[in-house]
């Protein structure tokens, strides 16, 4: 049946970058395409990344019709330790090496597309690649198919990331603040929002040599898909379209469907099972224990603290954060990893925290420390969780906003500082605590920010109201319905389909009206 469908309707090849924060939204997009269109989907990645993706899927997903294709990659050929296929737990210098090594995937991707073309008698409809795989634009063109970028970030953050790399605007001034091409003057950026390696980039370093080349290639693609929602980032989408001069489709949020339901009908236990599949990770504390802890606190009272899948903070920051959390007297659930300078996968040492800290907060039920990995979706969707101290990675941002949860920002790298800036200045759902791993933070400031965000009225109350409005917009965007009635993200997916089918009319394809998997 699937073969017949792919022969009659077409095939899409998807190429995620080698990082968990990219693999998960790619898989979610693959599912969305399978649900909303009749196309065959092949998702291609290296062996260990495919193993990770398989560990995140449930037996129900076997029926999804997504084909997983293995791309050969030997990390030791590129000066990386054996079995290094993902940014997880890699030091920064080796992440740079992995970026460059990823270009070697061009040859096996070319073979994959040629084989599909030979088997099906025509090339795939398009290749959807991570924005870090600019080389795929040339491969697609050479093999007669369309190339589509998929940015796993939001529109505003993607534009800032792209423009800062392509223009290095901070290098033309000594000032702390500078303007970025593509943004109006009022949106000036600050040097502290740039990661050290972008601040120091001068076009000859390994980072510039990768990003300037790979990102630029995507300016000649056929369009961009974006894991965001038109209504929550109107400025970002307007600016990104003007800058790219290409179609940009807002098809997000790519979070699990139960996160977008009004009130989840699923019991805590079944929710945590679905989450375990979603992350494919071992939790530091069982999901049940996290839910019990949250259940012992009142609505909107607990701060959730997590810096994403691979970050940690400096030893002095960790100490001040702990003191500030305890002195706030407010409950918290903290996903904690060894601080910078220590083996992030190693054993957690009590001396990294104030003496007796964990015992005290555990006994008083003020805090729960979860080593390394927590069931984030369960935590964010629990009614006791009231705010998220986050590194503002885009997946965490979407997950938090899908629950109407205000954010205390602590951006670290990538486009995270731009996400935080957008959420502070445009959305009004975030207050920034600090930036990066080099900053000095004071416990007093931690306490002050938590108190502000947790206020029922005042600034905290206003942020919560705005976050709730964003949540509603996200839910509307994926609302099923007839052509006129359906949400903007579903309409955007239809428009994307028309583009890859080469249809310039506004007519609707009969298969767009049915959810072919329902
Ligand atoms: N995550 C999780 N538990 C953790 C830490 C992270 O489930 O303890 C998940 C989180 O829900 C999100 C992803 O990991 O889906 C992190 O992605 P994000 O884009 O926020 O940050 P990145 O890891 O790419 O920096």
TrEMBL record:
Region (Disordered): 57-87
GO molecular function list: glycosyltransferase activity
Gene3D superfamilies: Glycogen Phosphorylase B
InterPro entries per record: Glyco_transf_N (IPR058980), UDP_glucos_trans (IPR002213), UDP_glycos_trans_CS (IPR035595)
Basic and acidic residues composition-biased segments: 64-77
Coiled coil: none
CDD domains attached to this UniProt entry: GT1_Gtf-like
Name this protein carries in UniProt: Glycosyltransferase
Keywords: Glycosyltransferase, Transferase
Domain Glycosyltransferase N-terminal: residue ranges: 12-256
């Amino acid at each position: 049946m699937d073969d017949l469908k792919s022969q009659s309707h077409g095939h899409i090849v998807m190429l995620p970058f080698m990082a968990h924060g990219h693999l998960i939204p790619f898989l979610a997009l693959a599912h969305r395409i399978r649900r909303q269109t009749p196309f065959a989907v092949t998702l291609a990645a290296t062996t260990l990344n495919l193993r990770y993706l398989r560990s995140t899927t449930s037996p129900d997903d076997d029926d999804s019709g997504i084909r997983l294709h293995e791309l050969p990659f030997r990390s030791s050929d590129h000066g990386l330790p054996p079995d290094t296929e993902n940014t997880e737990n890699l030091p920064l210098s080796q992440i740079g090496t992995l970026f460059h090594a990823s270009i070697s995937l061009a040859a096996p991707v070319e073979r994959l597309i040629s084989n599909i073309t030979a088997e099906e008698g025509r090339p795939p409809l398009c290749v959807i690649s991570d924005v870090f795989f600019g080389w795929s634009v040339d491969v697609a063109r050479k093999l007669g198919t369309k190339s589509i970028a998929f940015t796993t970030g939001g529109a505003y953050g993607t534009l800032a990331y792209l423009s800062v790399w392509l223009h290095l605007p901070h290098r033309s001034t000594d000032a702390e603040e500078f303007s970025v091409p593509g943004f109006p003057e009022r949106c000036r950026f600050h040097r502290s929002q740039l990661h050290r390696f972008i601040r120091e980039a001068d076009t000859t370093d390994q980072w510039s040599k990768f990003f300037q080349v790979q990102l630029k290639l995507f300016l000649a693609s056929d369009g961009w898909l974006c894991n965001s929602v038109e209504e929550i980032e109107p400025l970002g989408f307007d600016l990104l379209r003007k800058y790219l001069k290409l179609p940009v489709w807002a098809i997000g949020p790519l979070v699990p469907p139960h996160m977008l339901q009004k009130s989840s009908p699923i019991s805590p236990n079944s929710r945590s099972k679905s989450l375990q599949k979603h992350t494919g990770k071992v939790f530091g504390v069982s999901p049940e224990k996290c839910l019990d802890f949250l259940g012992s606190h009142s609505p909107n009272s607990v701060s959730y603290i997590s810096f994403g899948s691979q970050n940690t903070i400096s030893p002095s920051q960790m100490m001040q954060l702990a003191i500030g959390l305890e002195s706030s007297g407010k409950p918290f659930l903290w996903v904690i990893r060894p601080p910078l300078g220590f083996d992030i996968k190693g054993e957690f040492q009590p001396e990294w925290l104030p003496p007796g800290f964990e015992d005290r907060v555990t006994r008083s039920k003020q805090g729960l420390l979860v080593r390394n990995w927590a069931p984030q979706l369960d935590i964010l969707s629990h009614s006791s969780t009231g705010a998220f101290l986050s590194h503002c990675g885009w997946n965490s941002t979407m997950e938090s906003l899908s629950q109407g949860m205000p954010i205390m920002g602590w951006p670290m790298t990538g486009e995270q500082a731009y996400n935080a800036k957008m959420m502070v200045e445009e959305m009004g759902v975030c207050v920034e605590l600090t930036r990066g791993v080099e900053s000095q933070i004071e416990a007093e400031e931690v306490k002050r920010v938590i108190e502000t965000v947790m206020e029922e009225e005042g600034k905290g109350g206003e942020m919560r109201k705005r976050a709730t409005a964003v949540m509603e917009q996200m839910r509307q965007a994926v609302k099923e319905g007839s052509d006129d009635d359906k949400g903007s993200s579903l309409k955007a997916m239809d428009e994307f389909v028309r583009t890859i089918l080469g249809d310039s009319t506004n007519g609707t394809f009969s298969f767009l009206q049915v959810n072919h998997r329902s």
